[in-house]
Design a protein that fits this description.
about 0% strand; two-stranded antiparallel ribbon
Length: about 625
């Protein structure tokens, strides 16, 4: 009886809207079985694979033409002409890269898409190498002369970009050294997002993941299902403890067979990061990579210290999870299932869109209408459902002049609805930013990117918790979702950031990076973060091995700082603070040259204030959950 009542109560939170064809998500289904309205429209980038081939050839031609300008950048007119030509070529290169990236993500087993992706990566490397002379020649001009040239109208469209380029002049090397760095795959001074061009080490990591033979498990109904990287999250959070145990233990046991290969690739990436940073005269790898976005490494160090000072709420939550789920102990496979399993229900994509639309209303009609036009089935922005071979996880990707693209692996869970809100935040950040800035001034750092995404997540959970007449079980379920967001995005991502810092420190000290050492380092952190009420499984320490973000050059910390800031800002905006709303929307539109902390200051929020607010919310929410639990 209780199961029916609770499920009905939670169902009332979501308003069904059946406008598109019904579809049952299946991670093992062929892509052709997914209705077209639930797929993104890559034709907005390039019309077809044939058009892609033509565009790739045109990039080659433009690159050859650009090479004739080498050695000529000595005055404002020649610099302006070169930069104009470079921008035209780079815009087309962006389309070639984006089209290939999306096609590869659709089905990692598609050999044609894989060849296209490899060709685009090769072309991008060639583009970087072929245009590196531009930065070298501009940076070789002395400061006084460059300052005088930048006063003129010729370089007016590029002033901000040139100033940001010259900010890191001290880390530019001699022409011969730069040639060697380019051959070595350097990306610290590249004209691209650091994660747009994966290292060869990361490509090996991805290849190993593709070749891993994951086991089959029996689902809740006893039916055998093939475990995949796409559906792992679904079964990891199953209400049936046997199912989630089989999923997690089977998944990690498969990783165990490859642990030495994963350690070699991971260690190789760490050593590569350290080498590239040192070659450019940075003291630490984190300093070099964060300097790309003009973020001081103190931000990461302070985050780790702040979270370590506030681990008690997480320890209390683990104990509460054990009590509410009636468990003998809390394992890794118990961390993701809803804390009130009977309250969990399927949330079809159409229902998620309806609730997201209402939740984001405080951002204004223009924001919401633009998002809904792209996110609705047939809107062309979103690739909604999993399919056999589809890359796991979710992302938002964009280039200037084209609408954003969002990849989901939506499987009708509440967590999927939250992920959609998150990725839509990224998409709208790109949408607003690209419309407010020219090509050279558009873009943003990972730091502000994760504020935009987690802001939307916070508005969604506030909206659901604000529904009238919630019974204790439903409220407890939603509070559990809120705490899970803080656990997975602030605590877990800070754990990842601390692991990443320690791994780079090992490389900086010349310590051999082995599977045994990585497992111990990760296990020690997990035990510290989750406390005495958490019990480690035999292979739990291998969790680090499948996390792709460790190849993304100090990205994970931005999830934690992003949610901290997103919580503080969303709460103010939802409370009717017009000044914060205006400042937040202004932050989303800030040009890429604005330092991230300066962009955040547009909102009136300090980062330290945001982290304290988020951890305080965690503490208050756990306390409320404990009070509700005591009444049950």
């Amino acid at each position: 009886m209780k199961r029916t009542v609770i499920a009905a109560a939670l169902a009332a939170l979501f308003v069904f809207s059946a406008q598109a064809a019904a579809y049952e998500p299946d991670a093992n289904a062929p892509r052709s079985s997914v209705p077209a309205e639930y797929k993104w429209d890559t034709g907005a980038i390039l019309k077809s694979d044939g058009a892609w081939n033509s565009a790739a050839g045109e990039v080659e031609a433009k690159l050859k033409a650009l090479s004739r300008r080498k050695g000529t950048l000595s005055d404002a007119a020649s610099i302006r002409a070169c930069l104009d030509e470079f921008v035209g070529a780079r815009k087309l290169m962006d389309r070639v890269s984006m089209y290939a990236n999306l096609k590869a993500a659709e089905d990692e087993n598609d050999e044609g898409a894989s060849r296209m992706h490899q060709r685009s990566l090769s072309l991008l490397r060639k583009f970087m190498d072929g245009t590196s002379f531009i930065k070298q020649e501009i940076l070789s001009i002395d400061d006084a002369r460059m300052a005088e040239m930048m006063k003129g109208e010729a370089l007016a469209p590029y002033r901000a970009a040139l100033s940001d380029m010259r900010r890191r002049k001290a880390h530019m090397l001699t022409p011969e050294a730069e040639r060697v760095m380019s051959l070595a795959g350097d990306n610290l001074l590249a004209e691209i997002d650091l994660n747009e061009l994966p290292s060869d080490v990361e490509l090996v990591f991805k290849a190993v993941q593709r070749d891993i033979q994951l086991p089959k498990i029996a689902d809740e109904g006893g039916k055998d299902v093939q475990l995949t990287f796409s559906n792992y999250g679904k079964y990891r959070q199953s209400k049936d403890r046997r199912v989630r145990k089989d999923a997690v233990e089977g998944f990690l046991a498969a990783l165990k067979k490859y642990e030495n290969i994963f350690a070699a690739t991971f260690g190789g990436e760490m050593r590569r990061d350290v080498w590239l940073a040192r070659a450019r005269n940075y003291g630490r790898a984190v300093e070099g990579y964060l300097d790309v976005d003009n973020v001081p490494p103190k931000v990461v160090d302070d985050l780790v210290r702040a979270v370590n000072r506030n681990l008690k709420p997480l320890h209390r939550y683990v104990a509460l999870r054990k009590k509410l789920l009636g468990l003998p102990d809390v394992r890794l496979y118990d961390l993701y299932t809803p804390i009130v399993p009977a309250a969990a229900k399927d949330v079809p994509y159409s229902e998620a869109l309806s609730e997201i639309k209402e939740a984001l209303a405080p951002l204004g009609a223009d924001y919401v209408e633009a998002l809904m036009a792209g996110a609705k089935p047939g809107g062309g922005w979103v690739d909604v459902y999993p399919n056999k071979g589809k890359e796991s996880g979710a992302f938002s990707s964009s280039i200037w002049g084209v609408h954003p693209f969002v990849k989901l692996n939506y499987q009708d869970a509440m967590d999927d609805a939250s992920t959609a809100a998150h990725e839509f935040g990224h998409a709208m950040h790109s949408y607003l930013n690209s419309r407010a800035n020219s090509y050279v001034d558009s873009g943003y750092s990972t730091f502000t990117a994760e504020i935009a995404s987690t802001f939307n997540e916070r508005l969604l959970i506030r909206h659901l918790l604000g529904k009238p007449n919630l019974d204790d079980a439903t409220r407890l379920y939603l509070l559990g979702e809120l705490v899970e967001g803080i656990r997975t995005t602030i605590y877990r991502q800070t754990l990842f950031a601390e692991f990443e810092l320690r791994a780079h420190e090992l490389a900086e000290k010349g310590t051999p990076i082995t599977a045994e050492l990585l497992n111990k380092t990760y296990a020690d952190l997990v035990k510290k973060y989750y406390g005495p009420g958490f019990r480690m499984g035999d292979n739990d320490a291998l969790e680090w091995a499948y996390i792709p973000h460790f190849y993304w050059k100090f990205y994970v910390f931005s999830y934690a700082t992003g949610l901290s800031s997103g919580i503080a800002l969303a709460d103010k905006v939802a409370g009717g603070d017009k000044a914060t709303l205006e400042g937040y929307l202004a932050m989303l539109r800030e040009p890429v040259s604005t330092p991230p902390l300066a962009a955040l200051s547009k909102t009136g929020l300090e980062l330290s204030e945001a982290v304290d607010a988020a951890l305080s919310l965690m503490d208050r929410t756990v306390a409320e959950m404990e009070r509700i639990a005591a009444r049950r």
